[in-house]
Write a structure and sequence with these properties.
Strand order of the largest sheet: 6-7-8-3-9-10
Strand content: 5-15%
Shape: elongated
Radius of gyration: 37 Å
Number of strands: 10
Distance between the termini: 53 Å
Bound molecules: adenosine-5'-diphosphate
Largest sheet: 6 strands, mixed
Length: 612
């Protein structure tokens, strides 16, 4: 679960995602600013009302209000003045509430839009990430980055983006109002604010670390959960439920502990900061009361100070809350940016002649997954159009790596690979892969219908093309036997199909594309030899003759190919037909001998079992 430092380009990526929502944010901030301004006006109105009534003197009052008061109740102008002030207060508060509602709506639309766009970007970036990116990633953790981390960002965008503007407004508007009424009391009103702010900043840094640990623990938990659910049948088959449960429980506890640790510190911090805020308001109340008794402050002014100081203090405390959430958001931001930064497959020019003949030339190709060793070395091999090549060798000898180099899943270290004379690294990677229909040993089938799976490589294939392909892979009869035929839904990852059926369906999916090159990576390991021979015969005697590379562990699979390539320790050690290679001593002959022995011993054990 590596993390890369945040780069300027990823900030740019993220900034560009906010495009289209920025105006909404500006409007939301404007609404909340006006709402706060309205809320601040209410204590000022109350101050005038109280002072006018207490002093029985309209001196300080607004002339317009005075006229209004006289108009409504010349007999009782003070009472009318109070009522009018109250009505104005209610109107202003109502307007402020409407503005707050608008702010909520606007920022909800903006933040939801931002989150949706971010999820789309993440989906797109991971889909186009280079294969090596996934070597060290756990799917569960990637899911966590695309869901939970995006949600943390969304919440921040929804609730907190305009909080800073609000807090600054409070400080810059309220403090002058207070200073205007009483400079000394203003000082007492904000004297503890630096402590609240400084404490908040220190805590913010600390809690960010705790949140990172908690978030990563959640990522691990999701990864274990995802892996266990995916492999639930293996777990059951090996009766490993208890073991896997303990593993899950360990991560679960770790996650809980990390969160409890974080919330413990948060509780302490909020407890203390609430106490400091209350002390600050008490100081204003007591100090103001003293000045009132001394005749240096009016009752209205005292009310103004206590109300405004409370608003400032609690809003600043809320701002610290925002700052704390900003710490968490930064962690999520970094985790999301890690995905946005994933190295992408290059976009290159698509060749104009959209079909190739399927001539492949490896020349002096070496590939290394890492710095420690070369995993295939100095590969020289020319495969002619329509030729069938069998690729054999012990596990780890580099067969799949050779295929991955051809598919451009990993960059080669040296040499070149040509497809019909074109360097595959100079052409569009999507186009290249459309020329190479590849079936992997453990094919992935989507939990969609059989038809949808078959159409994956060629969206516009007609029914007959699907049937031709499934007939070749001997799946047609099986599919028509399903309750809904080609429209039968395959269970998640194709669990309601046997291993062999999944392989044959994946083979049909590749055949539908009619690509000029067909790559079969130990595809027929899940079917019996008889079925395998029949499928291979079907592939051989039809009009469309793709260049075919068959990676096989069972040598019977490749006995009839044109040439067999034998690999050992990343190198090609023998090339020739079965007859040629079998006739001479060497690795192929040894493989045949070993498999012959194995086949004999299996046959012997089968006979033994059959005879009781
Ligand atoms: P084969 O297909 O013949 O069984 P592979 O091509 O899968 O062999 O592997 C060749 C070597 O490369 C092995 O030593 C294997 O451990 C290593 N290898 C395969 N994939 C990776 C990878 N993604 N990262 C690092 N090493 C790898």
């Amino acid at each position: 679960m590596a993390n890369t430092p945040t780069s300027k380009s990823s900030y740019r990526n993220l900034w560009s995602i906010t495009r289209g929502h920025r105006t909404l944010y500006v409007l939301a901030t404007l609404c909340s600013t006006l709402a706060i301004a309205g809320l601040m006006a209410v204590p000022v109105i109350a101050m005038y009302a109280i002072d006018v009534v207490e002093n029985q003197d309209f001196g300080a009052a607004n002339k317009f209000l005075l006229q209004l008061a006289n108009y409504f109740g010349a007999a009782t102008p003070f009472a009318s003045y109070l009522v009018i002030s109250a009505i104005i207060g209610v109107i202003v508060t109502t307007l402020a509430s409407v503005l707050q509602f608008l702010r909520g709506r606007l920022s909800a639309v903006a933040s939801e839009g931002f989150a949706k766009q971010l999820r789309e970007s993440l989906y797109d970036r991971t889909n186009h990430a280079q294969a090596k990116f996934f070597d060290h990633e756990e799917v569960g953790d990637l899911v966590q980055r695309c869901t939970s981390d995006v949600e943390t960002l969304r919440q921040f965008m929804h609730n907190d983006v305009d909080a800073l503007a609000r807090a600054l407004l409070l400080v810059f508007v309220m403090v002058p109002i207070l200073l205007w009424r009483h400079p000394t009391l203003t000082f007492y009103s904000v004297m503890l604010l630096p402590i609240i702010v400084a404490g908040g900043i220190v805590f913010f840094r600390f809690v960010a670390k705790l949140f990172r640990a908690a978030d990563e623990a959640e990522g691990k938990l999701t990864a274990v959960l995802q892996e266990n659910l995916t492999g639930v049948r293996v777990v059951q088959a090996f009766a490993r439920e208890e073991f896997e449960y303990k593993r899950f429980d360990r991560e679960n506890q770790n996650f809980r502990d990390k969160y409890i640790r974080m919330t413990n510190y948060e509780s302490w911090y909020w407890g203390i900061s609430d106490f400091v805020c209350t002390v600050q308001i008490s100081i204003v109340t007591i100090g103001g009361g003293y000045l009132l008794a001394q005749g240096q402050l009016s009752t209205g002014e005292l009310l103004l100070f206590v109300t405004l100081a409370s608003i400032v203090v609690w809003r600043i405390r809320q701002l610290i809350d925002v700052v704390e959430r900003a710490g968490k958001t930064l962690v999520s931001l970094e985790r999301v940016q890690y995905l946005l930064n994933a190295e992408q497959e290059p976009v290159q020019e698509r060749p104009k002649d959209l079909r190739t003949r399927g001539r492949i030339v490896f020349s002096n190709v070496s590939l290394a997954y890492n710095d420690t060793a070369e995993h295939i070395k100095n590969i020289d091999l020319t495969i002619e159009p329509g030729e069938k090549i069998g690729l054999v060798g012990p596990p780890g000898s580099g067969k799949s790596t050779l295929i991955r180099a051809l598919l451009r899943f990993y960059p080669i270290k040296s040499g070149s690979i040509l497809l019909d004379g074109k360097d595959i690294h100079s052409i569009d990677v999507d186009w290249l892969r459309q020329q190479l229909a590849c079936v992997l040993q453990e094919p992935f089938l989507f939990s969609r219908t059989v038809r949808e799976n078959l159409l994956l490589g060629k969206r516009d294939a007609v029914e007959q093309e699907l049937v031709d392909a499934t007939r070749k892979s001997l799946m047609h009869e099986t599919i028509t036997g399903f309750p809904n035929g080609y429209d039968t839904r395959i269970g998640e990852r194709g669990v309601n199909l046997s291993g062999g059926q999944r392989q044959r369906l994946a083979l049909a999916r590749a055949l539908v594309t009619k690509a000029p090159v067909l790559i079969l990576d130990d595809v027929l390991s899940g079917v019996d030899t008889h079925t395998e021979n029949e499928i291979l015969a079907n592939l051989a005697n039809k009009e469309h003759q793709p260049t075919t590379i068959i990676v096989a562990h069972r040598l019977t699979t490749i006995r009839n190919v044109d040439r067999i390539v034998v690999m050992e320790q990343g190198r090609i050690v023998q090339v020739g037909s079965h007859a040629q290679l079998f006739a001479e001593p060497g690795p192929y002959r040894e493989l045949c001998d070993i498999q012959g022995l194995l086949d004999e011993s299996i046959q012997y054990e089968t006979e033994l079992a059959a005879n009781g």
